[in-house]
Automatic annotation (TrEMBL):
Stated name of the protein: C40 family peptidase
Organism encoding this protein: Stenotrophomonas lactitubi
Record's keyword annotation contains Zinc: yes
Pfam family membership, one: NLPC_P60
GO biological process, one term: proteolysis
Family statement drawn from the similarity comment of this UniProt entry: Belongs to the peptidase C40 family.
Length: 246
């Protein structure tokens, strides 16, 4: 990375603080340039969202070499979500830390770089990042890895359940191949719950032996006993048509 590129990245990170900045490093006529992009994330807790239009503009200018974003008030250590999205992008990622010290103007700290290496987030113990690693992401990954079933992904806003959206509508689930079940759950069944929301807004996977895999906001994904508060908040249980049980 050229010194002028790093300086441009740091200036963007400071200007956007306390929000995350994001941008692209592009080779234009043999020279390296940093192109600041917009972050369309709705809240600071949501992983940054670089719009497709900004990426297209960068591609029109030259060859996209790397993606850049900042970690406000945090180290540049890549999160699980950073590693997952780096894999999806197929690009090198640069992460810069930015923050304030003793109330002074924000300044940048360390910079770390990651590359696509085949990383996959673990099912248990992954960090939460809405829209990237959340309860639905966990359900999707479980079905893909454990059952060989591919589920569609859906763009979802932070707090979508309070904005008139319904990620877990029965119509959508039916289209994905799920049917409502009655009786005791079996391994692989999706448990749909309602937690401080006007609609169903949380999902887990029944593992058998009274255990459920799920991922709550702000926590690591975990296995918990299914019953008690989780059973009380359950609205329905669905099973994919391709799941076979003896």
């Amino acid at each position: 990375m050229q010194p002028t590129t790093l300086q441009a990245i740091q200036a963007h990170a400071v200007a956007e603080y306390p929000r995350e900045c994001c941008g692209l490093i592009v080779a234009i006529e043999g020279h390296e340039h940093y192109l600041p992009c917009r972050n369309l994330a709705g809240t600071p807790s949501e992983h940054f969202r670089l719009p497709a239009e900004d990426y297209a503009v960068a591609e029109d200018k030259g060859e996209v070499l790397a993606l850049v974003h900042s970690h406000p008030d945090a180290a540049a250590t890549p999160s699980d979500a950073d590693r997952v999205m780096c894999e999806h992008s197929g690009l090198t990622w640069h992460i810069v830390s930015v923050g304030q010290v003793d109330g002074e103007a924000p300044e940048c700290g360390d910079l770390q770089t990651i590359h696509p290496t085949g990383y996959v987030a673990p099912l248990v113990g992954r960090q939460f990042a809405h829209g990237v690693l959340d309860c639905y992401s966990l359900v999707r990954d479980f079905h893909e890895r454990e059952l060989g079933i591919s589920l569609s992904d859906y763009t979802r806003d932070d707090d979508w359940w309070d904005k008139g959206q319904d990620l877990y509508s029965l119509e959508r689930l039916h289209a994905e191949g799920f049917d409502l079940i009655e009786g005791e759950p079996r391994r692989g069944d999706m448990i749909l719950m309602q937690i401080r929301s006007p609609v169903t807004n949380h999902a887990g996977v029944y593992l058998g032996d009274g255990q459920m895999l799920h991922h709550l906001h702000g926590r690591l994904s975990e296995t918990v006993p299914y019953g008690g508060m989780w059973a009380e908040r359950t609205r329905c249980i669905v099973r994919h048509r391709e799941v076979r049980h003896d």
